[in-house]
Specification:
Elements lengths: L7 H10 L11 H4 L21 H12 L21 H4 L9 H16 L7 H11 L2 H11 L11 H17 L4 H27 L15 H15 L2 H15 L19 H9 L5 H11 L27 H18 L8 H18 L5 H15 L14
Length: 401
């Protein structure tokens, strides 16, 4: 894996970002009947690491929030008074990190780093945290929630796309050898009923979707489609592959001149244009994609410059909506690298795509140091997705290689 530069200061700042918080008011742990990890200071075992690596810091953020119930923002359909309950009882696995989807990709972050052996010194702690949540009883609670009336669209498409990214990770680990592969098989077997339910909901929804959803936030279809396809490739679901591929081509094959000048909108964390480009590399061969991209984004320079696409600016990192733009920089970075990975090695656009990816990614990683929970509860997952090149193979920064 290629390590990013300019992050030494990040680790020091992260220590302040994971400060101790006061006990929130409310029912006791016994009354809740759930284990809730508090947002504690970094593990003392980490303090001797100098400098503290990004992977360690990101894992610590996820460990500190996957069972942190409050503050919490839920999108919840009430069918009766019986549905009035705290998050940990509604969705017993994915209730932390402020909202369901962030809890899901917090678990994905830990699974990714654990499965790739990137922070072996934290393996036991990560495995214990995942094992505490990936129980049959808790997953049955998630199943019951999804099966409730009027919940077929729950967390669609963003949250359920991240859920499939989580199970895709477990599929890949389970296909390996050794103790981690055996453990991943156990967790995956418990999660597979929920996976099947979510996949069924997706297969029911995609044919009914008449138009692409081009927003820069959770409802965007291009980002979700990309993760659906990546899951289908790992799990061997050819029906999902064909369904999403055909819909993506129908929506975007004739797209032209995407208006990058209109980006970003003030609360975007996904680029409407770049996520489409990152999706289409998955459904076109190299030659077709290179031609399509020239028509879709004709302004990509060929001189290797990195300033053709300005990074998003956040003026108040405590604002949960405005801080979305820090995530935009990270998601742009992985999309730009994905686009470059699908172009011929000698394509003159690759150098500028990769230069801009580094500019956006480094800016985004700087933002993860924020001590403000409005950003820290989710940005580490975006940084990890980019940093570990999830969804793409290793690519060279040398356009002649």
């Amino acid at each position: 894996m290629i390590y990013r530069t300019g992050l030494i200061a990040l680790m020091i700042a992260m220590l302040a970002g994971c400060s101790v918080v006061e006990e929130e008011e409310g029912p006791s742990s016994e009354e809740r009947g759930v284990f809730e990890r508090r947002n504690t200071a970094p593990d003392p075992a980490d303090n001797g690491l100098n400098p503290r690596r990004a992977e360690q810091a990101y894992a610590r953020i996820a460990l500190n929030c996957i069972n942190k119930q409050y503050p919490n923002k839920i999108t919840h359909v009430l069918n009766s008074a019986a549905d009035v309950a705290e998050p940990a009882k509604l969705t017993p696995v994915f209730y932390g990190c402020f909202d369901w989807h962030s809890a899901v990709h917090g678990h994905w972050l830990l699974t990714r780093l654990w499965g790739k052996d990137l922070i072996p010194e934290m393996d036991k702690e990560i495995a214990a945290a995942l094992a505490a949540n990936f129980t049959a009883e808790k997953i049955a609670g998630e199943m019951a929630y999804f099966k409730g009336a009027d919940r077929a669209a729950f967390e669609r498409p963003y949250g359920i796309a991240w859920f499939l990214q989580l199970t895709a990770e477990l599929h890949e680990i389970a296909d390996g050898e050794g103790g981690k592969a055996e453990q991943a098989k156990i967790w995956l077997a418990r999660l597979e009923p929920l996976e099947a339910l979510i996949v069924g909901n997706i297969k029911d929804w995609v044919p009914k979707l008449a138009y692409p959803i081009r927003l820069g936030t959770h409802n965007q279809s291009a980002f979700a489609f990309g993760l659906f396809l990546d899951w289908a490739a790992v799990s061997g679901d050819s029906e999902m592959t064909s369904l999403v591929r055909d819909k993506a081509l129908g929506f975007h094959r004739n797209d032209r001149n995407c208006p990058m000048a209109y980006e970003p909108s003030g609360e975007d964390f996904l680029s409407s244009c770049l996520m489409v480009a990152d999706l289409m590399r998955r459904v076109m061969d190299d030659g077709e994609y290179a031609s399509w991209l020239a028509a879709f984004l004709p302004e990509i320079p060929t001189n290797g410059s990195d300033d053709w696409l300005k990074v998003g600016i956040v003026k108040d990192p405590t604002d949960g909506k405005l801080v979305h733009l820090d995530g935009l920089n990270l998601s742009r970075a992985w999309a730009l690298e994905g686009m470059a990975s699908a172009l011929p090695a000698n394509d003159p656009r690759r150098a500028s795509l990769l230069a801009s990816a580094n500019l956006h990614g480094n800016s985004g990683e700087e933002s993860v140091r924020t001590p403000h929970y409005s950003g820290s509860h989710w940005l580490a997952s975006f940084a990890t997705y980019w940093r570990t090149r999830r969804g793409i193979g290793a690519i060279s920064s040398n356009p002649d290689s």
